[in-house]
Write a structure and sequence with these properties.
574 residues; Multidrug efflux transporter AcrB transmembrane fold; Multidrug efflux transporter AcrB TolC docking domain, DN and DC subdomains; 3 domains; four-stranded antiparallel β-sheet; 21 helices; elongated
């Protein structure tokens, strides 16, 4: 806009003075000759005459015009709850992630078989012409890398599917088919589909679903009970496609209870015993790490000790109890081992597979995947359902994911739009040196909102960041059109024309540049609004909001602003 203003105030006047002549101006207004230009001018003049007659009628029936537009505006605002809201428009990234979980305690071998079955179904649903790669990640490595994995234990995994560029069907089509197929063919598997798009990952703050209903409290048992109760209610909502409790509450666990008195008498501490157990099950990498430096290339290598059984697995409880925890010289002088069974007891129990915290509090996450793009409507339905749940004492509910960011962003955009309108009004007050003229000009803004609401509703487009940006763009353009009308009417009145004649001339004469501006903008945005081109679906809401608001506001502004202008200035004149 800054560069355009600079060019318009310097280069354009020079070009006009150099290239535009009186003969050219006369030829451009010719309606008597032949040719395309003359034919267009005749058609436009007939249209302008028809518009002038209808504007004359509107000026004689101002109350009907203003009342009708007001009713239309109120009806348009009633569409707001029907539009649906989301943070960012859904895009087809050509990839998706399938998170799955087998029954609690399933061994890694069975989880691997389940992953192969799911991969087989995926390849049956997605034809080879659209399939590119399938990558499965199963189980959890007992190392620092576990922090970065969404898997919780050996019974969980995720499968990433990437489609070929230019795939024939959208990604959402294959996801919907897999949602129907997997529960029927592998009922024991719990699944959650998430977008593989980096945009969605950022907007969800790393969560696997856009809505994260987080239960926070002190005791995991009460948190899981509340999460399961909420899941049963939420999964029945028509707005919800899938629900998934992220944490596993009852994972089979062995509790090794060290007898501290007996261990101390044998010269051992609890740390010594548990360190030897960890070394036996995994390695001593994180207990007694040592590094060897290859002097040939100066590379560092971790040296770790690992039991032979660690790679094949401990086959029984007795094998686990026979883990050596200490060696000493016996009475015969031969080395003897102190076993785990001598200083500790082992009891099977059930515990959470992972313990998550947020702001120090323990939390359990209930992930919700909406069935539609209406993220805000799904959130409202969930809140209404959960309001009927009697939460255990000390348990609270918070909502995270992109839905929280959406609510914050919408509040910011609403404040920003209101501030922009106020600042625009104040700037025009300074320019027009009048409080009334900017007030009349601002009537173009609600006229644009009428077009925005109906266009978004007709195209099944949600309100999101992009559509809000389109509204801001639309406001700037429609206000410019209204400025043309009011400023030209003031100029004609200063030249001595009567009020009615000044209003009609301003609308008829300025209608041509207003229509040219509107048509040029609409033509430029239409390919994006129709989702033509790669990645256009992300910007389509912006284009649709701008086009719809601009078209309707242009038509209504040419009638309503003259009516409002004459209404106020006629009373000021009296």
């Amino acid at each position: 806009m800054g560069a355009s203003y600079l060019v318009a105030m310097t280069v354009i006047p020079i070009f006009c003075a150099r290239f535009l002549t009186t003969a050219d101006a006369t030829a451009s207004e010719d309606t008597e000759g032949r040719g395309l230009r003359a034919g267009f001018n005749r058609s436009y003049e007939r249209f302008a005459g028809w518009f002038e007659r209808n504007l004359e009628w509107a000026l004689n029936h101002k109350l009907i015009v203003v009342g009708g537009v007001t009713i239309l505006f109120v009806a348009s605002m009633a569409l707001y709850p029907l539009l649906g809201t989301e943070l960012f428009p859904e895009t087809d990234a050509g990839t998706f992630t399938l998170n799955f979980r087998a029954p609690a305690g399933t061994r890694i071998e069975r989880t691997t078989e389940m992953a192969r079955e799911i991969e087989k179904i995926i390849r049956q649903v997605i034809p080879p012409i659209d399939m590119d790669t399938v990558v499965s990640n199963i189980g959890l490595a007992p190392s620092i890398s576990a922090i970065y994995s969404p898997n919780a234990s050996e019974d969980s995994g995720f499968i990433q599917v990437e489609l070929r560029s230019g795939h024939r069907r959208p990604t959402a089509y294959y996801v919907q088919r897999l949602m129907r197929e997997l529960p029927q063919r592998i009922p024991e598997a719990r699944t959650l589909f998430s977008s593989g798009s980096i945009i969605d990952a950022v907007l969800n703050f790393g969560a696997m679903a856009p809505i994260d209903v987080q239960f926070a409290g002190h005791e995991f048992d009460s948190l899981y009970h509340a999460a399961k109760q909420g899941q049963e209610l939420i999964r029945g909502l028509p707005q919800v496609a899938q629900t998934f409790v992220l944490q596993e509450p009852d994972y089979p666990t062995f509790n090794i209870n060290v007898d501290r008195v007996k261990a101390a008498r044998l010269g051992l501490s609890q740390k010594d015993v548990i360190s030897d157990v960890i070394t036996a099950l995994n390695s001593n990498l994180y207990i007694a790490p040592s590094i060897w430096i290859d002097r040939a290339n100066s590379d560092d290598y971790f040296l770790t000790v690992q039991y032979e059984q660690a790679s094949t697995g401990f086959t029984s409880m007795e094998t686990l109890r026979d883990i050596p925890v200490h060696s000493f010289a016996g009475e015969s002088g031969h080395a003897q081992s102190l076993l785990l069974r001598d200083v500790a007891s082992i009891a099977p129990e059930y515990h959470p597979s992972e313990a998550d915290h947020f702001n120090i509090q323990r939390v359990v996450d209930l992930l919700v995947s909406p069935s539609t793009q209406n993220l805000g409507g799904t959130q409202d339905a969930i809140q209404k359902v959960l309001s009927r749940v009697a939460l255990p004492p000390g348990v609270s509910v918070r909502y995270r994911g992109s839905v929280a960011a959406m609510q914050s962003s919408f509040a910011s955009f609403g404040f920003g739009l209101s501030l922009a309108v106020v600042l625009l009004y104040l700037v025009m007050v300074a320019q027009f040196r009048s409080f009334l003229d900017p007030f009349i000009i601002m009537f173009a803004v609600p006229m644009g909102l009428i077009g925005v609401m109906w266009t978004l509703w007709a195209t099944n487009t949600t309100l999101n960041i992009e559509s809000f940006m389109g509204i801001i763009v639309m406001v700037g353009i429609v206000v410019s059109n209204s400025i043309l009308l009011v400023d030209f009417a003031n100029e004609r009145r200063r030249d001595g024309q009567p009020l009615r004649r000044a209003v009609i001339d301003s609308a008829r004469i300025r209608m041509r540049p207003i229509l040219m501006t509107a048509l040029a903008t609409v033509a430029g945005l239409m390919p994006i609004a129709l989702k033509l081109g790669e990645g256009a679906e992300a910007s389509a809401p912006l284009a649709r909001a701008a086009v719809g608001g601009l078209v309707v506001s242009t038509v209504l502004t040419l009638v309503l602003v003259p009516c409002i202008y004459e209404f106020f200035y006629a009373r000021i004149g009296k």
